[in-house]
């Protein structure tokens, strides 16, 4: 999210994409609100950001619990200037960015993946609906489909023989998110697929 006070909240922080997004937006001048289910997922990211002189706040929350997420955002907004709730604040300011992360399951179902496909399909439609509703008010809503494995330490360690170029680099994904965030209103992207060159699709 973005406001006059340049605050970005990253939901689902871990050692992969979440950490890379936090670092990229911090480098862009944003104060960072980190949200994850476990405090252990937040500590190393917060420490690295603070060591590099960035302003950061970590909050634990369960993304599947509405009240938990609301409380996390309340904590972040009070820390960074007591702005109104996220979307109303964006509408008031006439600008903001909401980036949703999807997956291959956003586009098609597969054997054994009914649960995640259902939720990812729903997320994609939510992003499309929000883009149509709030785009005219200056809110850029984008859905990014990550089609492949991200190069998190655990993924790489579990597959020692796999070509490193077949993983998607989390820092490169974060740079793509940043470029989406700074797009001019005349050329907004509302959906984007990201995959390595070797990925079948």
List keywords for this structure.
201 residues; alpha/beta; Rossmann fold; 2 domains; three-stranded parallel sheet
Topology (SSEs and partners):
Blueprint: E1 7-11, H1 17-27, E2 31-36, H2 39-51, E3 56-60, H3 66-79, H4 86-93, E4 96-103, H5 114-134, E5 139-146, H6 153-158, H7 170-181, E6 191-194
Parallel strand pairs: 1-2, 2-3, 4-5, 5-6
Helix pairs in contact: 1-7
Q: How is this structure best summarized?
A:
The chain is an alpha/beta fold and 201 residues long. It folds into 2 domains: 1-86, Rossmann fold, CATH 3.40.50; 94-201, NAD(P)-binding Rossmann-like Domain (Rossmann fold, 3-Layer(aba) Sandwich), CATH 3.40.50.720.
Describe the structure in your own words.
The protein has 201 residues and is an alpha/beta fold. It folds into 2 domains: 86 residues, NAD(P)-binding Rossmann-like Domain (Rossmann fold, 3-Layer(aba) Sandwich); 108 residues, Rossmann fold (3-Layer(aba) Sandwich), CATH 3.40.50.720. Helix content is 42%, strand content 18%. It has 7 helices and 6 strands; from the N terminus they run E-H-E-H-E-H-H-E-H-E-H-H-E. The strands form 2 sheets. Strands 1-2-3 form a 3-stranded parallel sheet, sandwiched between helices. The chain has a 3-stranded parallel sheet with strand order 4-5-6, with helices on both faces. Helix 1 crosses helix 7. 33% of the residues are buried. The mean pLDDT is 92.
């Amino acid at each position: 999210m973005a406001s006059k006070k340049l605050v970005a909240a990253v939901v689902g922080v871990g050692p992969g994409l979440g950490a890379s997004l936090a670092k990229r937006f911090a480098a862009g001048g944003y104060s960072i609100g980190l949200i994850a289910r476990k405090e252990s997922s937040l500590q190393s990211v917060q420490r690295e950001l603070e060591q590099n002189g960035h302003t950061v706040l970590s909050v634990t929350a369960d993304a599947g619990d509405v009240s938990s997420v609301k409380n996390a955002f309340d904590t972040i907004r009070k820390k960074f200037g007591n702005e109104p709730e996220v979307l109303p604040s964006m509408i008031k300011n006439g600008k903001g960015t909401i980036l949703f992360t999807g997956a291959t399951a956003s586009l098609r179902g597969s054997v054994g993946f009914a649960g995640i496909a259902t939720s990812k399909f729903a997320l994609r439609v939510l992003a499309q609906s929000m883009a149509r509703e709030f785009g005219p008010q200056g809110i850029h809503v984008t859905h990014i489909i990550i089609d492949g494995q991200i190069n998190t330490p655990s993924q790489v360690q579990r597959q020692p023989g796999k070509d490193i170029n077949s993983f998607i680099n989390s820092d490169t994904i974060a740079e793509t998110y940043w470029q989406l965030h700074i797009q001019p209103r005349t050329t907004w992207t509302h959906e984007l697929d990201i995959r390595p060159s070797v990925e079948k699709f």
